[in-house]
Write a structure and sequence with these properties.
- By secondary structure, the chain is α/β, with parallel strands linked by helices.
- About 50% of the residues lie in helices and about 20% in strands.
- It has 14 helices and 13 strands.
- The chain has a 7-stranded mixed beta sheet, with helices on both faces. The chain has a 6-stranded parallel beta sheet with strand order 2-1-3-4-5-11, sandwiched between helices.
- Helix 3 packs parallel to helix 13, helix 7 crosses helix 8 and helix 9 packs parallel to helix 11.
- The relative contact order is 0.13.
Length: about 350
Amino acid sequence: MKKLFAVVMAALMLLSMTACGSGSAPAATTAPAETAAAAAEAPATEAAATEAAAPAETYVVGICQLVQHDALDAATQGFKDALTDQLGDRVTFQEQNASGEPANCTTIVNGFVSSKVDLIMANATPALQAAQAATDDIPILGTSVTDYASALEIDNWNGTVGGNVSGTSDLAPLDQQAAMIQELFPETKTVGLLYCSAEANSQYQVDEMVKYLADLGMTGVPYSFTDTNDVASVAQTACDNSDVLYIPTDNTAASNTEAIANVVLPAGVPVIAGESGICAGCGIATLSISYYDLGYATGLMAAKVLTGEASISEMPVEYAPEVTKMYNAANCEALNVTVPEDYQPMG
């Protein structure tokens, strides 16, 4: 009995030890792996959150406009509209007008340089010249500039200024404007070319127009005034010696169309104008561009420069996509001029 009891007790002890040794192992945990994955995702999540929280880059654009008149005003408005369409409230403007004084352009653009604007828009040739002289670093876009080669004294012009300058040109086809004079007034022998001698863009147009008129059997005679004080007297001299007058895209003339109209209309001498604003004031017809569209194209260029999409040094100067034959109905009636059907009345 004692032996049997001992055997039973030994068996019970063995079973007890086996049960303790064969119990279920603790369930494996995934916490370390999950923690590692979360740690790996954290930097990316934090970076995305930081990027989303970071404000979009903003830009300040300085606008220097030579003088207030319809054409330049329209170009400035088109420029601002294009940039606002592209960049929204990320762009702000510092807009100043030089009141027709080139010296004021210099003061204005120097102020832009001092305040470190991101881009300068120079509206008209003197504004462009002042901006180029003021900085080699800040991008400059010109508009309402007729000929960049003449304005910036560039030899071997290839269509691109280079450096920190580009822009748009308001040059309408001068050969077609000369042809317009012959079309409307086929008996014309002498054309007086009325312009401001202080404007390089006007001098360029006059020089070219003399050549085109000569090709058509007409003589172009330049009549230049120096500022607003002698516009009327020079216009009178031109009328006294000309069959027709031609006025290029001249800012001083554009600001004094009433004074010119008070001379040419009583004299009965028609004016063919280089742009619609001058034509509306004192002309009878023009082959003109849209200055608003020109300014808008400049604004699109500016957006590309500011955002780094394009390098201004490689941007060729752009031109108006189309020109339109237009006539001033009131002045045509006053001078008893009838225009062909393909001319559009000015609004």
